[in-house]
Design brief:
Blueprint lengths: L13 E7 L13 E6 L2 E6 L8 E10 L2 E11 L3 H7 L32 H15 L7 E8 L5 H5 L2 H16 E11 L3 E3 L11 H5 L15 H15 L7 E7 L6 H11 L4 E8 L21 E6 L7 H8 L3 H10 L5
Parallel strand pairs: 6-7, 6-9, 9-10, 10-11
Antiparallel strand pairs: 1-4, 2-3, 4-5, 7-8
């Protein structure tokens, strides 16, 4: 049976979608129970396939988050059917009188919760990351994962359009799969830089909007490009403050170009080529990326410790292709780093 639900929200904060079965039938006998949520960004499929003796289920909910509405899969079950389901929402259900009222009433059936599933955008992206990691044969590798975002004046349009937030979400999924503690370390830079709060996958909503240092916030970072300053701070964190010789560091560095410090950037990469740190530069915004495009052939390094990909329109590349490209050179560097003793 297919069902289509339409909800119009005004003052409603949450809409729950439930299902019940009559008689002694349980959801263990129901096949193909799937919720499909369609949006401008595609479809989300949530299949309920782990129910057992439940006769009532809370399938999912749509809830208000700030000015938007979000979808969350729930999968909570009740053995007793409609009555405990209704009571879980605060609805009182009166017991029916029966001719056997003199007899002792049976104990209420125990409520058996189905494993709760919180399906988020990051959960879906993690599946794509896992596919790429398996293809690269590095699915067991743990690394410290960081992202650096260009916050110069020329990037303002990409921030206001939500492009940087979407880039952040796709990188956060990499950290959720690879990082040793599931955290993504974040930097922003322009003329100056800011080391932002690290973030986990459950705090991804509007992270960029909450954190992005606009010109009038945090004293402002200026409008120019100063890549060397933020690169030095990244190196400082992972080699001086929190050194690890058994854990690689994977840095994804987003920029729309406007780069003038070619010699300084080159020297930083040469110097850091003896550290267990890999730089993945990503050009966005259809701009001139300068020295970033030449990093693969930069001479004088101990090992090749950097890669560059150009994503002129980040929203036009599908997730699987993006992760294949982001992770293309990291396994090669990883092998070289181990072979040359940079990683124990």
């Amino acid at each position: 049976m297919n069902s289509v639900f339409f909800c119009w929200f005004s003052s409603i904060e949450k809409c729950s979608f439930t299902a019940t079965l009559e008689g002694d039938t349980t959801f263990s006998s129901v096949q193909g129970l799937t919720i499909i949520v369609k949006s401008d960004q595609g479809e989300v499929h949530y299949e309920v396939n782990d129910a057992a003796e439940e006769r009532a289920l809370v399938l999912a909910e749509v809830y208000r988050y700030q000015s938007k509405f979000k979808f969350r899969a729930i999968g909570r079950g009740f053995n007793g059917g409609l009555k405990p389901l209704a009571e879980s929402f605060g609805v009182e259900v009166e017991e029916e009188e029966s001719s056997s009222s003199q007899q002792a009433k049976p104990q209420p059936e125990a409520e058996r919760p189905v494993q709760k599933i919180s399906l988020t955008k990051i959960d879906l992206l993690k599946k794509k990351v896992a596919i790429s990691l398996e293809k690269k044969k590095i699915q067991q590798v743990k690394a410290r994962v960081a992202v650096v975002f260009d916050a110069s004046g020329s990037m303002a349009g990409l921030y206001s359009k939500g492009t940087v937030q979407r880039a952040f979400e796709r990188v956060l999924a990499v950290a959720a799969c690879m990082d040793d503690n599931g955290e993504l370390d974040v930097w922003f830079f322009a003329s100056k830089f800011m080391r932002a709060a690290s973030v986990r996958e459950h705090d991804f909503e509007d992270y960029i909007q909450r954190t992005y240092p606009r010109p009038k916030m945090f004293g402002g970072l200026g409008v120019g490009n100063n890549e060397p300053a933020v690169m030095h701070d990244v190196i400082k964190k992972y080699t001086k403050e929190e050194p690890r010789d058994d854990m690689p560091t994977y840095v994804i560095f987003f920029s729309d170009g406007g780069i003038f410090e070619d010699k300084k950037i080159s020297n930083i990469l040469i110097d850091s080529s003896k550290q267990n740190l890999f730089w993945q530069f990503v050009g966005i915004g259809n701009a001139k990326y300068g020295i970033l495009q030449k990093l693969d052939t930069l001479p004088g390094r101990f090992i090749d410790n950097a890669g560059f990909i150009s994503l002129d329109d980040l929203d036009q590349i599908d997730d699987e292709e993006l992760y294949n490209r982001l992770l293309h050179e990291f396994p090669v560097w990883l092998s070289a780093a181990k072979a040359h003793g940079l990683l124990k």
